[in-house]
Write a structure and sequence with these properties.
The protein is α/β, with parallel strands linked by helices. The chain contains eleven helices and ten strands. The protein folds into two domains: 90 residues, no CATH class; 147 residues, Rossmann fold, CATH 3.40.50. It has a five-stranded parallel β-sheet with strand order 7-6-4-8-9, sandwiched between helices. The chain is globular and about 50 Å long. The two termini are 20 Å apart.
């Protein structure tokens, strides 16, 4: 199994869905797309072994891969949607009193870097725009690469926002917070709105669990950002209906359902047979 398949606990979620060992998930027979992707599902420098199956979220991702001359795509939908089906009430009940949670405020996601690249941008200008736009409390979500940088984390804490992080995605099978997406889902379901400064995986996830979504503000830059697939300018053109402070939520839902692969989810037995070497068959 490629270690990317463990990112965010994806393999663990799929194993649970398939009725397999979710603590030590069996090997996935190929490469699983681990985030929303505007190309063929993977980093352009990602290396594949010959004949590997590429498990991707949507039909459009597979089409773009075929156009690039790549093969062996299988559309399976996003692990997030499998988790949503497994946890339909996660985050919807107040554990202190057993009453339904009333959604309020905005969960705001900052565009993030990764281990090999830091983001740069005007954080104060972004803070000012958020204050002008959002009409309720704001919780700021930082990816661990920014949360671990005090100069970034403290900027948003000093601005009066609650600042959280959902954990680490892991690397080479080490340090994976397998509850990452569970925590993210529960938190999203407590908020009325999810916003970010770029169209991103988090925006799609938020809409899929009933949040209003918005994309605005300084998009930031990242060191070493690969321009091969058109960058953020292309994203804003191609997915323009997701960009803005007050967008058509119905149109956004249709786009997001498509991007997450709502129509391509497998049954538990299909996941076992197609993705996990036929385990338990």
């Amino acid at each position: 199994m490629h270690h990317h398949n463990h990112y965010y606990g994806h393999a663990h979620i799929l194993a649970r869905y398939a009725g397999l060992d979710e603590v030590h998930p069996p090997r996935i027979r190929g490469y699983l797309q681990h985030g929303w992707n505007v190309a063929d599902g993977y980093n352009p420098t990602h290396e594949f072994f010959d004949g590997a199956t590429r498990f991707v979220w949507s039909r459009d991702v597979a089409r773009r891969g075929y156009a690039l001359g790549r093969r062996n795509y299988h559309v399976v939908g996003s692990p997030w949607l499998y988790l949503r089906g497994l946890e339909p009430e996660l985050g919807t009940v107040d554990e202190s009193n057993g009453k339904p949670v009333e959604r309020e405020g905005t969960l705001w996601f900052l565009f993030h870097g990764w281990e090999g690249g830091k983001i740069q941008g005007d954080h104060q200008r972004l803070i000012d725009e958020i204050r002008e736009t959002e009409d309720g409390p704001v919780t700021f979500s930082l990816y661990y690469t920014e949360y671990d940088r005090p100069e970034v984390r403290n900027t948003y804490l000093d601005a009066g926002f609650d600042v959280i992080s959902f954990g680490r995605r892991g690397f080479s099978y080490l340090g994976t917070d397998t509850q990452f997406l569970y925590k993210q889902m529960a938190t999203m379901r407590r908020h009325r709105r999810v916003a970010a400064n770029r169209v991103s995986t988090a925006v799609l996830y938020g809409a899929s669990v009933g949040c209003e979504v918005a994309v605005y503000g300084d998009p930031m830059l990242m060191e070493g950002e690969d321009p091969r697939f058109g960058g953020n300018a292309r994203v804003n053109r191609q997915w323009s209906q997701l960009v803005g402070k007050d967008i058509d939520q119905s149109a956004a839902q249709q786009i997001i359902s498509h991007e997450l692969g709502e129509d391509y989810l497998l049954t538990p037995s299909e996941v076992r047979r197609i993705m996990f070497d036929g385990s338990n068959e």
